[in-house]
Amino acid sequence: MNKKKQARLSSETKPKEPRKLVKLPLIWIFFVAVWGWASCYYGDVFRISRDNSFWVPDTEQMNFVLNCHNGWLWYLGRMFLAMFRHPWLGGLILSLMLTVGSWLIQYCLRLSPRFRWCSYLPSLAYIAVVSYLGLNIFFETETGRLLGIPLLIFAILCLCAIVVRLAGRKDAPAFCGIPQDETMRDNYVQLAVFGVVLALCIGFVQWQRPYVRVICKMIVQNDNQDWQGTIDTAHENAELSYRPISANYAIALVHTDQQCNRMYDIRLEYDSLYLSGWGTPVNNGNQLYIAECDFHAGLVETAYHCCMERMVMNGPYIHAMELMTKCALMRSEWKLAEKYLAILDQVPFEGSFCKKYRPMLYNTALVNSDDEMGHIRLTEPMHDSFENMYQKPTFLGYNIRLYEGRSVNALWNSLATCLYTKLMPDFVDRLNPLNGSIPPDNVADGILLATNKRPGLDKRFQGMDLRAQRLGSYLEHMQPYLKDRPAYARQLFDKYKGYYPYYYFFGNLKATKKSTTQASSNSGVN
Amino acid sequence: MKKFITYALCIGVAALTGACQGEHNTLPAQFEQLEVSAPLYPDYTNIVIPPNIAPLNFMVMDSAAGEFVAQFQGKGEAIVTGDGKEGKIQIDSTAWRKMLQENLGNDIQVGIYAQHKEGWVKYKEYTLKVAEEAIDQYLSYRLIEPGYELYRQLGLYQRDLSNWNVQPIYENNREYSETDNHCINCHNYKNYSTRDMLFHVRAKHGGTIMIHDGEPHKVQIKDSTILTAGVYPSWHPTENLVAFSTNKTGQTFHLFHDEKIEVMDEASDLLLYDAGKNEVTHILRSKTQMETFPCWSPDGKTLYYCNANLDGKIDVDQPDSLVTMSLVYKYDSIYYDLMKVDFDIESRTFGEPQMVVDAASNHKSITVPRVSPDGRYVLYTLGNYGQFHIWHKSSDLWVKDLENDTCYALRKTNSPDVDSYHTWSSNGRWIVFSSRRDDGNYTRPYLAYFDKNGQGHKAFMLPQEDPESNILLLKSYNVPELTTDAVTTTQESLHDCIYNTEGEKSKYIKQ
């Protein structure tokens, strides 16, 4: 028997050793997990929270926070939130705070290894609350709370630890290595506790607040003028139907001139958002997108108006000030833009924004040559009128009534709005400039639908035959479903995604709830 | 311990050294003389200043320079002060006060030096003329965002013009509360004294707060015959009476216009409120005439006001909604004239309305008349149309000389932007007003000298300890009012009055 054979035989006869488990450096795993959660998974949400907040070192400017109850705490909370301009940085700080906090609990409470899992509960509770609140962590609320409260708890723990240290000279549990006093079971129970709770939090967000990350991601993408990114995000989440998603999607379509082609690629049913705000029992979150939609629809004055009202109610915040800077630049209000840039210059990490827009001061040509503002310029009104003359929201009301635009883009916006609002007489009134041309897909479908009441309308345009055939077969197929449109809308979406006649009959069926954000007790002539 | 002290000292010295770096408090020996003025914020060049004003701190907006020095030279010792890159020239208060007192009626020359890469330059000098007449010591105002409809944190404040002290008179609920949200506006004083003052509270806890000798009480100036509660007030100079306008006001927002907001009255009348008896009566009431902005003459025998004649323009007998629509469509052809009615103090009766300045004939509109303490001048705002000139870029300060019946603009005082809501000092030599000249949006209080010949001089912004603060402030200064004394009532007593009293309803006396 040769040696090889002997070896094989001996290995076959030896009993198998159980796989050896190793103890893990849980503090570090927890740190990495929380960092990943705060920066990668929830990073955009924290980033938008930061953009809806404002912090500068100057206490005079922060008086609007400091003179409230717990003002100093909210001031510090806002300071830490400011780091989320870069989610990896903000996440790092938050994760450090939560991890060290957990470690300090172990130390202060002298937790035996068996109960060490308890030390992670406060941090996990924080993550759970943040997940539960969804958009409410920044929407019409004091943003300083988001990091102010954990900061306070962290500070208390630090003080407790100092007292414990001075009083008992107790040795600290291992932070950098693997605690020697833990059994394998203790070690894995801890891992299981925070692993499961973190997974539950993520699961809750995915199932109960699926829109939160998507909305925030789209806002970030639009802020970065990554229009294609926004469109892709909307398509990836086409099943989600919430107004802020549609609004941000529409903005991206406007900038890529696809508003008359691709608006109906996503569901437009508008489920309710979990939102609370300033005295608003019903809140459809319109404050999340109205100013932006006005701005991108060319209604720069109205966008400024919305931003100002939001700043009045929420206090100054970065996103509004950035938008107001752009509005001021577009309206050649140079001194005003200069003022906002001077303020933003003091906000941590806003240097790049200021660097980009400061050269545009007193330089209309540079403003017009900016991709975003130049595009918006094309749809600015040609004449003055009053906001109050239009149906709300103004970016829809204005475009429904638009009769004169400074470019074809204004016509596309107006036609897209008429289609969206299903106001076919207004839609037909605006078709003349397209006579003899091949209209965009949604417009062509709208023309065919309107032809029922205006026989011969479709003859004014080219390339309608194929679409007419499709409409014919669609209408035939639709007949059984038309009896109970709300019931079948969801079922038919996958099949007819992107097809305007589907939207016309089955989309956006819920009555639009009017916003009550501007509570009467808080409005008047100032 | 010794080590610790040594370290602390080292850090202190290092910090001081660092802090002083870039500051230069001596005049450069060599410099190039420039023929241009220094770009200053605020613009304090060639102005007349009160002898009791706080130091006129400013910023030199020269980004190419690394250091700045300013020299103030009058009679006596010069003040030399400097700053690093930021260019903030902040003058020592004690030295400044001494300098102003030594230079009453004289000029102070100001030289500004900036260190560029190529060396020091000196900008063209300018002068500060120190007037002999002081300005009233206290300026009260409301701080509020230049908002459209909504309000949150706002307050009435009082600034001591001779230093940097600011005291809140009253701040509303700091935090949002559906049950407590309220707005405050239209603070007003009797004869430049805070002994008798008032302001309105709107929304929750609403009413008019009347304050006498520091004791506040709330009243409800309401009646079914009155359009709304009292709005724009004017204290009678000798009697315990207040003239109010009562206005049914609406507003609308421009979509594509240099001006953002249009505030319009749909109707307005004038009221006389007897503060002693808590009685109210109409002074003028008409559907076709819109009377507003009452103002007593210093002798209390004449009431000036503004009036828009709707006769022939708007069919006021239409339903209210149609009247509103008509007004919106004709917003830029509603003009207010300056009018007056005589008042008999004994019988408390008014005479017939008389035209003082016919602005409508010239397609202009007058608002906010204020009579000078000597009774000779009526200072008002003239704009192209309407009554809310604080949002009209065309609005300028004008004066009617009642002695020789002439009207003229205060050209040196005015700006291309909004200039409105003015007030006189008690000696008639200073005017303070709100102006949007800074950035077109945020109003700031401007002060201007009004000389014995009835001419207004170049206006200057209310000085601040940190000259940059007016750039960074996101609120507007509303309704600046000068007083000779400080408000004595406390925030606590006002809070108690506003929150815990309903307010006594005034009795309406039918004429």
Structural overview:
The complex is a heterodimer of chains A (526) and B (511). With 526 residues, chain A is mainly alpha-helical. Chain A folds into 4 domains: 26-208, no CATH class; 210-278, no CATH class; 289-417, no CATH class; 422-506, no CATH class. Chain A contains 26 helices and no strands. In chain A, helix 5 crosses helix 8 (144-168). The longest helix of chain A has 25 residues, at 144-168. The termini of chain A are far apart. Mean pLDDT of chain A is 91; it is low at 511-520. Chain B has 511 residues and is mostly beta strands. Chain B folds into 2 domains: 23-130, Immunoglobulin-like (Sandwich), CATH 2.60.40; 138-505, 6 Propeller (Neuraminidase), CATH 2.120.10.30. Helix content of chain B is 10%, strand content 44%. Chain B is built from 5 helices and 37 strands. In chain B, the strands form 8 sheets. In chain B, strands 1, 3, 5, 6, 8, 9 and 10 form a 7-stranded mixed sheet that branches. A 5-stranded mixed sheet of chain B has the order 14-15-16-17-36, covered by helices on one side. In chain B, strands 18-19-20-21-37 form a 5-stranded mixed sheet. The N and C termini of chain B lie far apart (84 Å). The interface between A and B is large, with 49 and 45 residues.
List keywords for this structure.
heterodimer; A: mainly alpha; 59% helix; B: mainly beta; Immunoglobulin-like; Neuraminidase; seven-stranded mixed β-sheet; five-stranded mixed β-sheet; 10% helix
